[in-house]
Each structure stands twice: as structure tokens, then as C-alpha cells.
Fold each of these.
Amino acid sequence: MGNGKKRAELKISGMHCATCAVTIEDAVKSLGTDMEVQVNFGNDTAVVEFDPGKVSLCRIEDEIHGAGYEVIHQEIIIRVGGMMCATCVETIEKALSSLPGVILARVNLATEKAYLTYNPSVSSVEDMKVKIEAAGYQYLGIAEDLSPEAEEQARQRDLSDKFRRFSIGFAVSIPLFILMFVPLPVPMHTLSWFMLLVSTPVFFYVAYPIFRAALMALRNRTLNMDVMYAMGTGVAYGASVLGTLGIVLTHDFMFYDTAIMLASFLILGRYLEARAKGRTSEAIRKLVGLRPRTALVLREGEETEISIEDVVTGDLVIVKPGGKIPVDGEVMEGESYVDESMITGEPIPILKSKGSRVIGGTLNTNSIFTFRTERVGKDTVLAQIISLVEEAQATKPPVQRIADVAVSYFIPVVLIIAIGAFALWYFLLGSTLLFALTALISVLVVACPCALGLATPTAVTVGVGRGAELGILIRNGEALEIADHLTTVIFDKTGTLTRGKPAVTDLVAAGIDDRTLLSLTASVERNATHPLAEAMVRKAEELKVPIEPSGDFTTFGGKGVAARVLGEEVLVGNRILFAEKSVEIPTEIDQQIITFEEGGKTAVLVSVAGRIAGIIAIADTVKETTPEAISILKEMGLSVAMITGDNRRTAEAVGQQVGISKVIAEVLPEDKEREVKSLQGAGAVVAFVGDGINDAPALARADVGIAIGSGTDVAIESGDIVLIKDDLIDAAAAIQLSRKVMSRIKQNIFWAFAYNALLIPLAAGILYPFTGYTFSPVLAAFAMAASSVTVVSLSLLLKRYIPPAKKGRS
């Protein structure tokens, strides 16, 4: 394969016949005559030979997608060291994106990780390592291959190195600074040579990381903050050397102490920033720390302790009191109370007995039990939560684009201002060279896009981590920003506002007895999976009513079901179905239906052989916290609505119980999405809250889909925000958390812009003509260090944030 061509093997989903293979081949070949493609329908792969200089892998995949198929990618998270500011993020993203096999590269400055979607047949992890190192940064390995201990050790080594550098720098620069003001019986010429000899090794030791990074940036033809800082400290040191040697400059230009102090303050700032950034990912480290290292399994009748990586699905695992449950599974023997607070936030241990589900990472408190493993490795709930939180922390809310645009122009603008300030003071206003150089150095050192680069990722990282601690899983940064602008929250009724476990409350038979009515109904409904059907079958089993065989089972979406039982056609459903089937409803039966509906009950009609046979009333109790959650959302200024397939009377009765006046009733499951779309068309920004099972289209259509889980059974993929606990208070808390995080991001961005807008002109000497005040380079370096630390510290305050909805709750 010559002429610079690359060979890519693509995994395709969506092919169902040989024609699909031809369609894909034609789509790819449409990109150029030199494209070679072979699609194998048997193993769902396409092998493409292409020239990356003419067409990108992304473009090829777009064509395949346009033809109606999907390409399955591989994802990887890489730890990157040496990043200092937003321009570092841009440099690494560009370097990695230049690889022909990389589809998407996102870098998070706060967590120091690169998140890549790529094709391993075109670009390898080794290629990524080479690109990262060539750009001047450190490849620290694949994130999941690094243990928390290894990560912490690497972080501590980096902090220790920075601490040594700035400590030595201050230990030398402060005495040198004092020497400049103490009258000594030594000629200035001798003193300057002494300062040169003492300062040179210290300056290069302290400033080495800055100059190294600047050199790598210039080699890659990019301008970053290290280039500016190297210029600032380099000018200070260079001027001092020229002054000592008497070349162009005089002994008045003694900046040795300033040069070392500048470099020391820069390294101090990075030390404090690194320490603070390390704390932004504590939530993830806590979740990872929940994973036990070993498991006690029963194999061939003997108890064996094995590594957690060696546990396989179907293993019998023994958990003793005080031990952590290693993976997800089902209890087979014994019973005990399990503390699930670290996952669900529920403080009270839950009794687990035979048939109960247990979740990896939770704590067995008081007894011994055995469970069979069902989900291991990446499939466990804990692993999915960790993955979701990490992915969410890597995303950028749209507001970050403001900072990204600003950073792209920042360094060229600052360089122009610095050189302009020097030229203005020295050439136009006739100031001394010393003063003009001081202004140049101050501008180069004080300017800081780092605060802009850290404003969003630190807040998102801490906020998403805090959400996970509260049992609120936020899937991406965009969900945070949209949740901040919500106007309307729509709730599904069954299983969301209510417990989702309806029970039969009344039987009203017509022409037959109650037991026969229940028997016929249960015989039909045992074929269905709807909660109302399960309630009727459950009631029949409780009363030991016979459930007969049935045939010709038919469903009428959202309206009811029918089947043949004991030779008769039995119809079970609502008024709409009975009207369609022309089954007459007598006045007395109709009045009873109205009475049930006004009481918040669902009336299920039953007919046998075309004649009404009775009514079964079913009620679903409202969750305890539902009215309070609705009240909180209204206080937040949000419009609240309920959507249900129930008839209007029943729906309005439930709405009245929970405090919802806007009720959208008699909506078929497939039409819920249309109702959401209708509200959006009227200008509403909509959140849909549902159980993530029957509400998938509506959750996807909503601006923010909020899916409610039930403790260990969490549908991770079902919404933009996933609530681990089955508690609507958390829906309100999720919106409050989103608002708080977005508020903090805006504060951070404002601070970062305000800092630069105020101090850059000050450093350039704007106040000097009016007040005689100049901003010294040392003070500029201190301010620069303080700016990044301030932004990170503001984000860290989110770690202690408790949404008002959850205050006073455990």
C-alpha cells in the first residue's frame, strides 16, 4: 500500500443484507476514484484504503452515516502531564486530531486527561504517545491502567518538584533583593558579578520547566503562556547580564532578583493550582476507591480469595460482615442489611435476602450471605457511574466557547500590548529604557489565560462529581447549561409521580359474579406487561381465583387488550376502545366509572361476547415526596405539567393530589414525544421526567431528559440526567445543582476577564502619568499566580454545595 495511503478497518452496525454492503461501498467510492473499499456483510466490517491528505476518516464515516449506517468506534482516556493553560489544551487537541485515525479529541485541563474516539486499525496508542510528547507534554499512560495509588504518586512527585524549585528560588531571590537596598562597601561592578554567579544556576533551575515548554511550543509553531513567561523572565535575566557585562546597558539594569522571583512566583502559582486541581477530582477517586481489590468465591466447593479482575459472571461470591460487595449480582443464600449510601445516598441499610439484587462497592453490615454474580468489570453499576461521571467531566458546556474564542486571540493581543507599551514609553514618551523594560516585563508576566481556561472545566468537574455524591448523574456539560434555562418540567404519571405499583381497589360486576369477572380479566391480562395488567393478575393470585388459558391475544396500543377465554371474546380496556368496538356502557355503569375517576382511580372496563361484564378500579399511590418536589419546582419559577394515558378525570384527581394544575391526559405512549415537541414549539425549554423505560422518545425529545432510577437498577443511558434514587426531590435538586454550577462558571469567566482587563493596562503603566504608580514585575507575577488559584478555589466551593431541596435531608 504505497503513496501514503492508510488502511482502515471499520466496524459497521445496521447492515441486514448483501445490498447494504453494496450501498456502503458506493457511498465511500463516491468520495474519489482512488478510494478502495471492501465491505464484508458476514462480519459487519468495511476495509477502506484512503489517502489522509485527500480525504479524512471523519469524511468517510460521514458518508457511511449518510447512507444510513453507523460506525462503531473505540474510546480511550489518556493521562497527560505538563499542561498549564488553555493554549496547552488547544495544542494537544490539534496534535491528536492530526492523527488520521482519531475521530474526536477532547482534553480537560482540570482533570489532565485526553478523551479520544479513534479507529485502532489506523492510529495506535503509541502514535498518540508520540504526538503528545512531540508537542512537549508528558504521556502518563492510559487512565484505566493507572491505579489510584500510581496517579497519586505521580501527582505528589510533580508537586514535590515544583515545591523544590520555588523554595530554592525564594531562598536565593529574597536575600538578593535585600542586597539591592543595603549599602555595602563593595563596588557595584563587583556586586553585579557576584549576583550573576549566584543567580545563574538558580535561575535556570527554577525557570527550566518554563523555558523547556516554551521551546517545545515554538518548535510546534504555537504560542502559549510559557512563551510569554519565558520572554518576561528571559528579558529580566538577559538585561541583567548585559548590564553586568556593560554591553548596551548599565549597572542600573540589575534584575537578577526580579528574574528569579518572577520564575519562583510562576512555579508557586502552578504548584498551588496543581494542588487545587487535584482536589477537583476527589469525587471520582472516592468512587474508584469503593471498588474492592479481591472477592471470596466458591469454586469446586472451596472458598477462594481471588483478584476482582478474575471474577466472572455466574460465580458464587461469599460476603462476610463488614466486607464490600465486589460486583453486581443476586442473593442466593442468607440475608443481611447492606449499606448502599455510597451509591444511592440512602442512609438506612437495606435488608437483602434471597432474590434481592446487590451492587458492587456497597457494604455488608451485619451478616453473611452468598450471591451469584450477574455483572462484572465495566458492566457493573459502579463502573458505569464512574465512566459516566468521567465522560461528563470531559465535556464543555456551550458557554465555554466564549473562553475558547478569547484564548485563541489572547496571546497575540498581549504580545502586541507588551511591545506597544515598550515602544510608547521609550520611543514616543521619552521614558527611560529601564522604565520601558519594566512595563514590557510586567505585561508579559501578569497576562493570564489560565484563569479563562480553568473557569469552566474545574466547575464542571467539581459540579458533576458533587452530583454523583448526591445520587444525581449528569451526562454532559450541555445538560448543565440547558437545565439552567428550563421553563417547564413535564412529569410522566405512572412510576414517576406515583409508585408505579397499582393495586385493585374495587370490583363491580354486571351479570356475573366478582370472582368470574376477575378470573376472565386476569386470564387475558397475564399476557400483558403493563403495570395495570400486573395489578389485576396479582389480585387474582391473592384471592386464588383460577386463571384460564387464553388465545388470540391482541393489544390496542394505549387503549386495552383482547383475547379468547373459555370460547368467549373478552375485551379489557378504556372508554375509547369500547366506543371503537361498539360495546354499549349502561348509565349506572357509566356513573360508577365517573365516581371512580373523580377519586383518582383508573376504571378498567371488561366485556364478554360484546356485552359489558363489569368494572375493575385500580389506584396507584402517590410517592410521599411528590407534592413537596412539585412545590419546590414551582417556587423555582418553573411551570409544571403532568402527562398520562389515563382519562382526564383520573388524571386531574391525581394532579390535584400532587399540586399540578396543567394536566395532559389520554395521551398514547407514542404521542408523549409530540406533546413535548408542541410545548417546545410554543417557546418552552422543557425537561421531561420519566422512568426511562416507556418514556425513551419523550426523554430524547425534551431539552433535558431526567430519568429516575430505583437504587441499584439504574438505566444509565436513558436520560441527560439520571437520578439514582426513586425520589422526585432529586429532580428539583438536579436543576438547582445545574443552576449553581452555571452560576459559578459565569463568575469564574467574569473574574478571569475582569482580572486581565484590569491588570494588563495597569502593568502597561496606564496610571503612571496621573499617579506616578507602576506595577512591578514581581507584583505582576504574584497577581498572575493568584488569578488561577482564585478560579480553582471558587470551583472547589461547589464540593460543599447542598441543593436547597435536599437541605435537612440525609
Note: The two ends are 64 Å apart (CA to CA).
Amino acid sequence: MANRLYYLDQIHPSDRKQVGDRAFFLSILRQRQYAVMPGVVVSADVLRQFLKEIQWLEPLFADLADSSLHLDITNSRQLQAVAQQIRQGIQTAPLNPDWLSQLYPSIQHWETPTVLLQPSLALVSQSDPRLSQRTFGLLKSRLCYATPEEVILGLKSVWSELFRARSLFYWQRSAVPLQQVNLAVLVQPLPPVLLSGDLQLHQTSLELRSTYGLGINLTEGIAVPDWYRIDPSTQQTQEHSAGSKTYCLQLPTATPETPAPPPIAPIPANPHLEIAAVESCHSQPLALTPEQLHQLIKLAQAVQSELRFPISLEWMISTHRLDDSPIITQVHPQFVEAPPAPSPPIAPRVQPAFPLSAPAEVSAGGASHAVLTGLAASPGRAIAKACVVGGLGDETTIPADVVLIVNSILPSHMTALTQAVGIVTRQGGMTSHGAILARELKIPAVVGVGQGIDAIETGEVVFVDGDRGVVYRLEDDFPLLPATTESSLAADSAVDVGGGMGGRLPTATQLLVNLSHTESLAAIARLPVDGVGLLRSELLLRPLLDRYSQQQLTQEELVEQMAQQIQQFTRAFSPRPVFYRSLDMRSHELLQSSSHFLPELNPAMGLHGTFSYQLDPTLFDIELAALRRVQQAGNGNIYLVLPFVRTVEEFRFCRQRVVQVGLTDHSQFQLWIMAEVPSILFLLPDYVQAGVQGISIGSNDLTQFILAVDRDHPQMATAFDQRHPAVLRAIQQLVQTARQHGIPCSICGQVPTQHPELIADFVRWGLSAISVSQDALEQTQRAIARAEQTLLLDTMRRLKFPSTNH
């Protein structure tokens, strides 16, 4: 195990995949002399070896360490049963004693009665850096006594977190095969903690929270923390509010041999913690002294300057240090979502008692109002009675059709939020859990209102304007129609692509755009899409190809000008991917100078696609040279999609030329194929083995060949039905086979545009991305968000309330 243990003082950049992001970033800071507790990392390889040595009774788990473990995540019973079996196998399997004998001396050296075991994740292949950020909080840490028996139990407990039902659901829904998830465990001593908290530092703002005791007081919502909003440029506090710190979680005051006195309120999930009443000397309104606050601000700015990216940082102040300077317990990049753009007035399903537009109109009918301001966290508007809640727990229920007034919101509160039509929080910013959950659930929300929230009382009527960040307190007798108590936001009107798509809700299914020209490219690139799913080369490059065929351009000039055209897209969308589909011109579209092709009666079945590359690879080689030039110019976000691939041999021919030109030398490059020819339904595993890294379903050609219908024949238009059961089953099979083999699968044909009702099925099957034309972005995004919300909430309800499934 010696080569599988990594000390924070000795971790190198090449070790990141083995030690995970949590340990990696802490090691950077510790090696640069920042205050970070010492630690040792049990690498991801130890878990893989441990899983291989377990004598599994269920054959499904025999290759668990190297398996993608494809499950039906819509079947909550199966998901829970599989999760329980795996976790039970981990908890009961013996741990190699040699491993512990190498780990335990480090723990003894710290001479602390308790240690903290924390999950540290890394993804083997990660195209979206935000994915790792979203996993923080997914797996829980474990606190245990520093004895061999306790450490073994704690280690297995952290490993088991990877196989909880919620974790399996998350990875599969995010299209991340389980074998690509590396889980290491960071073991650190934990001294007595006086204060703890977290902070988020961006270019123009710093938000900080603090409370007494362990950091779990914040993550579990046990204490309402103090909250600060600070201007980083001046280090001046712009706003702050005192939390509620009557009780907090503290370290145990006893050893395993000397039982602790009964705690005030034991925590069943962790018997090694006790709730202690905050001592009277700690009862001042704010936990941090001005000097401690100043130290944290300086620390945040120094760390961000060191790491050179916006940060989210967790900290603690220990009673064992000679001074009261903060210790860094976690740091990771903070990828900031752009604030939602204001959306235009939305017409509700049922006309409310007054128009939801300008603030002045709130006083219609002579009703007076008071105004509170915060951050516009989630777009939309809602009118309802307020429900003031001191704190949310996993089992908290709130009345239906209310505006929830709360201090802060945690990820575990999603089920309770489903009854709310609006959210107002005292604390939080645009990237707070409350803001993110509100956007995911399409609930209008205003966060960071501050102390003004104390004026709102349960039962009074409030108007939440999530577009402008304003909350209006209305007269109690304000005229409400029954339907307007539900919400003023129509369920299918949350996105306006024309001017308000900046308020697009985050979805696991990527939304891509199809493009073929540079017109309005800058404006389209500013839309919150995830990239270009289909860059059609035929229309984009046709003028250049015509000039080349007329000998107005040399081959070198053609390569250079093609590269310049393509670079306009890669630069505009960087770092988002641009999927370039190589030329696929049929006989009636070919250059006049081409001598290899004759006019055909049925061009769709003729000499085109990658088969034509084998007959004459000249143009394909020119395209590859242009793409390589794009790469060499610093545009690593260009991917290649091969069109109309009939056989694996055709793909191998093309891939060989791709490798020869050097495109695969760039680590980010991916080679995909279009899934248009029905033979791929039977040969996709062979394509993957040959090197295919993703597929894009071309539903137009796939439909015409499955149904034997010429889609260009006007008299056969009624027979060209992309909703035909055979077509839908083919798409479902492609999606599921791709997931089983660990490659992404998108769709870029007309079916999502012409039949948006099918998007719910695509999402349920696990499609990675949907790519549509610009004019269809709005309806497609709505359909994706609606489908994902339905799937997620249904699954969470089944996981949360399993008894309802019996």
C-alpha cells in the first residue's frame, strides 16, 4: 500500500487522478505554506483493489471495479436494492491488514483522539469541469476515533458513499460510467474546533458564513450561520446578519474507553458527535471578531491569487493553535453561472387579479406595498401567502402554494421545496444552493434579502419578482384569485431565447445548436448553449470549394481559408465544443470537376459519406489538414464527426488518416460518427472497439432507411414519420447501447424540433445532448427542463419515501 498512500506534503500534479480534487488542491496550498492540516490520502487504486478482492455473491458485482454498472434509475426499488447489496458487501468484507499497518502509523503520529475521513473525487475523463464542482456534498465525510477498528469502519463507510442510491442515480443521470469515477479518501487529524465556515470569492463580491463548532453545522443546517457580503476591492462589509447559534455540533469530549455523558440531542447518523449548548461567553451577536474577519478576507484573496480562479473555500479556527488564525479545510474552483437575464412579462394560465409587469402596478386597487430587495436568483413572478420557516430539515413539510421565507436552503431540501411557488432567503448568492435549486425547479426566487426578511410574517401576501430581485409586501386583503396563489409563472414559460435565455436553467442533458454559416455568430455564441452540436461543412465551405474546383485557389490556400472559417466558430464558442461534420455531398451536390461520381437516380443510397473518402480521400485529407491547423492555433475545442458511415472498415480507414495528420495528439480531441445507417444498430459495440468516442443520431436519414421512404419524394411525405415505433425503438437502442459502452450519444436531426413531445422520452432514455437550430432552442430547452424535472422529482420521491412503492 506504500505506493498507494500519498501525503499532502508530497503530492505532485500527476497524482491528481489518484488523490482526487479535494486532496489535490489542499496539497497545493499546504506545499505553499498555507495553514492546512497534515493529511494522508488512501488512493483510488486501494478502493479498486478492495472491490476486486470481495467475494461477491451476486455475479452482477463480480467486475464492479471496472464496470459501468448500468441500472434503470427510474426503478427506485432496483436502485435501492443494488445500492444496499453493494454497501453491505463493502461493510462486511475484510480489509487487507497490510494496508492498515501502513496507514495507521501516520494517524498515531498526529496524537489526536479523532480523525476526519473525507471523500476526494476525480473523474478519469471530464469534458465539463463544472461536473466535479456539482459533486461536492454528494458523498459525506466520516468522523471517527483514531483507533484501528474505528478507522477501518470509517474508511469502508466513505467508500460505501459512492454506492448510495443517490450517488448511483447522479452518475448515471450525468452519463458518467462508474469506472471513470476515482474515489480516494483524505484522512486528517481534527483538533477541537471553535469556529468554522465557508466563503465564495468572485471578481466583484465575497460572501462568507461563520458559526461555532464543526463545519457540519452548516452543511446539515443545524445552525443558522452569521452571513457577510463584502466588497473585495475595499475589504469593507456591505451587509451582514447574525445567525442563530443556540446549539452546535462539537467534537466528543470522551474517548472510546470513557463514554461521554448523554448528549442533549443525539444525531442517529453519527453517534460520535454530540450537540452541545453554546457557552455563554460565545453568545455575542457575531461569532467572528473584526480581526478574524479581516484575516479570512486576506486569506481568500491570497488563495485566489495563488490558484488563479474563483474559489469556494471552507475554513475552521481551532482552540489548539497559539493564535486564532483560520485553517483551510477545503478549496475548489467556483464556476459561476451568469445571472439570469430579465425576462419579459409572462402571461399566466389564469389571469391574476392584476397584471404582473411594472412594480407600480402592484398598487392596483389602492393596495399599498413595502419593498425588499435582494438578488434575482431565479426568473419569474409569483403571488401567494408567505410561510416563514425557521429551518428546513429532510422531513420538513410546508403548505402547498406558498412563498417560502427562510434563512438558507441546502441541497437536501429539494423535496420540501416542491410545494413552494416562490422562495425568499435571508442569505445566499447567485451560486448558493437556494439559487441553484430554485432555478432547477423553476421557482421564482430572490436571495440575499438580509435583515429585511424579518419583517415578513406568515400569512401575509407577498409578490416575488425573480426577474428584478424584488419582494413586495402587500396588504392582507389584497385581492387574490384562487389560481394565482399557485404561481404567476406558467410552467412552460420559463425561458425566452430572444432576450432572456440568460435565465436558462441548468440541465444534465446538454443543449447544442446546429450551424452552417457565420451570420449572427457572435450573438448566437452569447446564448447559454453548451456548444455547437453540428457544424455543417457543406454549406459553410461551398464557396471555397467552388473556387478551388475552378482553380482559383491552391490546395495550401484552401486549407488555410478553411481553417480560418472554422476558427470563427471555435473561438466564438470556446471552451465549449464544436462538432464539425466532414463533407457529405451527394451526386447532385458534387463539384463539377469531380471525375469519380456520375449522376444517380437515388443519391441518398449512392456514393457519398465515408465510402466516398475511400474512393478519393483528397478533400477529406484537406479537411483534416485544416482541422489540425485549427488545433495548432490554440483551438482545442474542435471535434470531428464522420458522416454516413456504413461499415467499421470505413471508420478504420478514416481514423487512420485522422491519426496520421496528428489530430489525436491533442488530449481533448474526439472522433465521433453519425448514426444514420441502420447497420449501426447491430455494430455499435464494434465501432466503439475500433475507436469511436461518441455518436450523433441523424434522425432524418435513419428514418428514411428504416422505413424505406425517400424523404425527398413529395408523394411519400406522409409515409416519412419520425414517430414511427420502429424509428423510436432504434433511437432508444442506440442511446442505451452507447451508455452501456460508456460513450456519449446526441441527436441532431429534425425530430426534436418537429416533435418536441418526444424529448421527454429522449431524456428518460439517457440521451447526452440534443442539438437543434437556433429558432428551436427555446422550445427544446423548455422540453428538456420539464422532462428532467419530472424525472428527477419522481425518482427523488421514490427514494425519499420508499414505503409508497410497496
Note: The chain has a mean pLDDT of 78.
Amino acid sequence: MKSSDVRNAFLEFFKSKGHELVKSSSSMPKNDPTLLFTNAGMVQFKSVFLGEESRPYTRAATCQKCMRAGGKHNDLENVGHTARHHTFFEMLGNFSFGDYFKKDAILFAWELFTEVYKLPKDKLWATVYLKDDEAEQLWKELTDIPAERIVRLGEKDNFWQMGDTGPCGPCSEIIIDQGPEVGCGSTDCKLGCDCDRYLELWNLVFMQYNRDESGNLTPLPKPSIDTGMGLERITAIMQGKRNNFDTDLFSPIISAVESMSGISYGKSPETDISMRVIADHLRASTFLISDGLVPSNEGRGYVMRRIIRRASRHARLLGFSEPVLCKLVDAVVDSMGSVYPELSSEKERTSKLLMIEEERFSRTLEQGMRLLDDLISKMKDGQKTIPGVELFRLYDTYGFPLDLARDIALDKHLLIDEAGFHSEMQMQRERARASWVGEDEAIATIYKELASEIGETVFVGYQTLESEAVVKAIVKDGKVITQISAGDEAELFFDKTPFYGESGGQMGDIGNISNGEIEADVVDTKKEVSLHAHVIKLKQGNLKVWDKVKCVVDLSSRRATARNHTSTHLLHTALRSVLGDHVKQAGSLVSPERMRFDFAHFYSLDRKEIEAIEDIVNAKVVENIAVQTEVMNIQDALKSGVIALFGEKYGEEVRVVSVPGFSSELCGGTHCTATGDIGAFTIISEGSVASGIRRIEALTGMAAFEHLRERSNELRLIAETLKTDKPAERVEKLIADLKETEKEVDRMKAKAASQNSSSVLESAVEINGVKVISKRVDNLEQKDLRVLADNVRDRLGSGIIVLSSALNGQASILAMVTADLSKEYNAGKLLKSVATLCGGSGGGKPDMAQGGTKNIENLDKALEAVYDLVKIRKF
């Protein structure tokens, strides 16, 4: 059975049992600070299990994109060495939200396995939680599994939880006995053995509890079902393979690697490991990039960078010296693009991003090699072990692999401190986890509790900027209180509000509230869960819960924000028109003052491209097209061709904002009534913010006019200063004249250096058969000192040169050793010794080194010491 048939059979089976087939969510969960990546099928339903969200269905089935690399669930280092470990995998799952429970979950699983997949009944086992009598009895009553093949296990094996906190409960695992020929051969081999004989296929979680930060368990509103079965594992069983990598999920990628490398899979354990690593990591990288992630030095992006670099390292072990992962993307897309269409639409971007990362890793690898060589050269005599803390620094900062450091150390008859390395790694993981959990995405418990107590805030700000409202809650300094007085700052929660809460990149509204007795400024509005938190400063009166107030949004601020928000939609479409369809929004900031737009692209924009983008946007502004908004079903919206953003979580009903004939996006923000309201649009900056991510900042309305006026005034001032009506031509001529003058100065300096070199050469002293020059030549800049040194070296032929020049309170020092002597004498070490003697620093290569000092009074003594250093060969 093909993997596609295994996947489809699962989904169609549960569809026939009344389950809604739900599309896989992103591999990166939104608004869940406990997870770096989606590591289970239930992640997208977590809020449903907790009773915080309702869906129009109570049964669901999915094939979910999952990642286990970083955080609690981390399989990265095992990948390639075992038959089952993966970073990316697909999890098949069926879910019940307060609908069916243990009985039906067990019945469905047994029917699918024995009647659809036709697995042998006499090979199947079941495990249950130690204290779950009900589950054990159900397995006995509902299936053909005899009592001796139903095993009770403890909390470690049969009590499931997604993270340190969240939904959890006892579970029951279905195991298949693959036979003694697959096992370890031990006479004591039994269920629970680390070998692959007894292989877990499906985990049925009976979701009954929620675990809080203190470890306390509280019953969920409705007992539910969460199951998970790895597609890779069940496919291996269905295809009679003992290794997941031998299935058709991986074989197309491995075949492509074979073809490109000329190495056959199965030739040797070492090359097999490298091919498996590449196949797994390429799948992971391709899926993550298609979901909008870009490599970076923190969080999810850092984990992906490690995955790409580990794959690139193994590609090198197979003999690849040029980027190759980017050329293998087709193999992933060809085999999985029909199931996950985002792979096909993002193929070009994925290939480019991988190529950039591979090239960058190649450069950092070379840098790491130099740093490791330098580290080894500094080791004290008798020291045989490279410190783990230094190896981790190379790994963490430069991506230098530990296994490569181990190989180099072995070549030099040295050891590495692996224990110290892994200790540093563990501390880094703990720091990263603490940092991740503390990010702004975390939703404070207080807001969740308030939402369940007072209900959601009704937003009326699309229709009006003023409304009456009732104060339903007050929060001050993180605590719920009942009233505040003049001078207090707090957060207010109303039954309804015209104030837009910060979300989707748009800043929250400002304004004021009043009721005749109190008056307060609203300085910010935030969206928390289903609530709008109004950050206020109470100017007069006392305000209590249940007071009625009038809410008024600042009109000028709202209009300016709307101009900038609508312009981001126009900009997005213009970018795709000018640069290509690979452009995807990667973030934005919309405020009254300006707009910022991050997008996927690989190169800086030239002036013509920027002007073309501005022209397109401003043309739509001049057309004054009416902006339309419509609420519609998510599926209908997507079919109509609207742009949906990476990583955003959309409900069944979505708001579509359109500029007819030009732009259509899913958006909950506030916008202009017509494009002409924007007034004018101008880009003020464009640059890189991450690998493959560019950023544009722009102004609209009066801010754009003011910016253009300032630029015009600056140009007019330059023209007046230069006394010309063609300032650009005049500046070009001045620059050309300046360059010619600089060339003439350089020629004069070279001539002076040639003359000076004669007097410098006269100071040469012969020591141990080597000509040595150590001389001070003041009032020369460092580059001029280098010219002089080059001239002296060329005329000297063979020897050692140390020159120094004092200028403006500091001195440059330069050391040179001619090529014929560089194996015996090291300019870098000599320079360090001399610089140290006069309180300076510096370094370089064996043939040339540079440094400096501010301690000029000791400079002459340091230069005099050069002769002794050469005499005793102390460098």
C-alpha cells in the first residue's frame, strides 16, 4: 500500500464515521508559548479541549504536519542513526470534543487496523494506564486481543501530556509484534524492550484533565479523545519495511541523493546515515519554509538553521562541495506537493533560501576551521583536551559541528571535552526555553479568567467611532479591582467598544472616555483573548465596575492608521507585480505615523524597482477606488483567490478587504473608505532584516508630503550652495575632481615612501644571518605605513621588518617577514610581542601583521626589543 493510500484510507474511514476532515494547521503554532513547533495533531484543537473555543463539529480527523526538533520533544541528534526518529513527520489523528469517549475510540481503532489495513490480529497488543480499569475491560470486551496481550504500564508510558502544562490524560497504545527476527535476540525480550520487535503504532489519549503550572490536574469541561499515529511508522508496516527511510515517503529523496552523489544507498553505514539525515532534514526544511519560517539566530529560525546546517554537513561527507539541498527540493515537492499544495507554490522561494543558507554555512565553516586552528595553537604545552565551552561557542556562534571538531582533534592527536560541550548545550536549551515561554505571545491567565467570567468584547469600531459602553472589569498592576481614582492608570474592559485592539500588525486605537463625572485618556488598546483591554489614564473622578461611559476614538489617529493599513495591501500587490509571486508578507506594523512591511525576497531592491512600486500604488490612490469589506466563509474566501497570511489562525467566518480589480486579502483591520483617502505614498527605506526577508518603510498622507518637501528643500539648498541649477551634475564633477586629487596625493606619498625607504633600509641590522629593520617613522597614517613597508620589503629582498608611526596621540605598528623566512619567523607573533611591550595589541598572519598602541612613550623601547626577540627567536 502506497503512503498516499495509507493516508487517504485513514481519513476516508473517519469521514465515514461522521468526522470532519480538517486541514493540517501550520507547523508553527500561533499564540502558544509552550511550543516552538506543532508536535502533535491535537495542537490546533488545544483551545477546543480547554473549552475556550467552539467548532461547528464535535468529531474531527486530520493528517497534521509535525516537527520535533527543539524543546521537550527533540529528536534531532538521533535522526539518521535509527530507523524511526524524524524531525518532520505526519501525524494521523481522530478527535472527539465531548462526543464519543473510550469505547468508540477503541472500536474505531480496532476496525481500521483489522478491517481496513488488515493487520494480523494475533500480532496486536494493547497497553493501558496502570489505574485505568475501564480501558482494560473495553479492550477485552470489544476486540479479539486476549488478556495476556493487554499490558498495564505506569505514568511514564501511558499518561500523555503535550507539554509541561495543558490538556492531558491516560492513554492506550496499540503495539504490533514484528517477530523475533526483528528483535534484539535476548531471551528476556518483551513489550517495553528498546528494540523494534514490539513497535508502538497508535496512541489513543483519553483526554480528561488540564495540568496547570503547579502540576495540578483539573477535569476538562467534557472528556474528549485525542489520538496520534505516525504516518511514517504505519506506512513502514504496511509496506513490509523495517526502516521508515525505506518507504516511499523517503525513497524519492534518497534516490535523488544517490543520483547526484554517485553513491549507492546501502553501500556503507556511514553514507547511509548521511543520506537519511539529508532526506529527513530536507523534508523538515522544505515544510518549515513553505509555512513562512526563515533561518535566524533565535527561536524557531535558529532550530531550522541547525537542521539545514546539519544536512549540509552530511552533504559534505558525501563529497558535495557546492550547495545541493536547494537542488533536491524538487524531490520533496514531487512526492508531497499534491497533498500539501503550499510546497509547490513556495518551491522557488524554498530553493533560493536553502541555497543562501548553504552558501552562508560554507563561509562560516571556513571561519570555524580557522578559529579552531587558532584555539588549538593557543593550548598550553601538555594540554591534550579542547575545552567544551570553547567548542560550544564555535557551534553556537558559527554553526561549527561537534563531529567535525572531533575529527580535526583526532587528526592532531587531541581529545575534546564532550561532557563540557553537552553541559553548555543543556544550559543554552534552558535559556532558550525560558526566553520562548516569556515572549509576548503568552496570554496571561488573568485575561483567560476574565474572558470566561465577563464574556467577549463586542467590537463596533467598523461602523462607528463613538459608542456607549458599560465597564465590566478593571485591572490594575495585574490584579482585578472594582474601582479607580483620578491619577490612576489601569486597563478597562467594556461590554462593547469602538476602539480597535492591537492585532494583525495594526496598533491599537487611542481616544478618550467620559460620562460627565469622569474623564480618561485611552493611550492604547490591546486584544487579549476575546477581550479588548483599554489602557487608560484617569484624569478626573472615580470610576467603578458597571459604570456607563461614552467611548470616543481619536478620529485623526484612526484615519492616519487606516491610510497606512490600506497602503500595505496596495504595496503587497505591487511588490508581487514588480518582483514576482514568490513575495509573501512576513510581518507588518501599521501605526498612525508610518507603515512597515516585511516580505519574502532575496535581493535588495534597486531604485527602478522602488519607483515602479511607488508608481503602482500611487496610481491606485489617484483612481480613488472604493475599498470593500465582506464577511464570508473561509473556504469560499480562499477559493476566490484572496491572500491569506502565513501562520495566521482563521475562523470559519473571515473578513475580506478588497480594492476591486487589484487587491483582496483576509484582514480584520480598519481601512480607508476609498484609496484616494491615502493622499500620497512614498517609500523611505528598504533593507534586509533576516535571511530572505526584506523590509520596506513608507509614509502616507501629510507625512508623505512633509517628507517629500524636506527632500525637495535639501536639494534646493544643495543647488544654492553649489550655485547651479543642476546639482547632480555638479556633485558628480566635484567627486571626480576629488578622486583625481586623491590619486595625485597617493602618487606623491608613494614617491615619498620610496625616498623614505632608502633611509629605512640603511638602518638594517644582521642578526643570525637575517636582516632586521626596526624603525619609527612618525606622521604616517596606517595605510601609508603599509605602502612604506611594502616598498622596504621589495627592496630588502629577505628579512624582518617592524615599522611604527605615531600620529594624533596613537601609534600604528606593522610587522613583515619575507616569504623565504615565514616558516622560521612569524610576523603575527612578533607583532603581538612588540605591541604588548608598549601596552598595545594586534595580530595577523605569518608574513604580515598590524596593530597599535596609545602608549607612545614606551614605543621606542618596544621597537628596540625587536632585535633581542629575533636574536633569541622568541616568536
Note: The first strand starts at residue 20 and ends at 21.
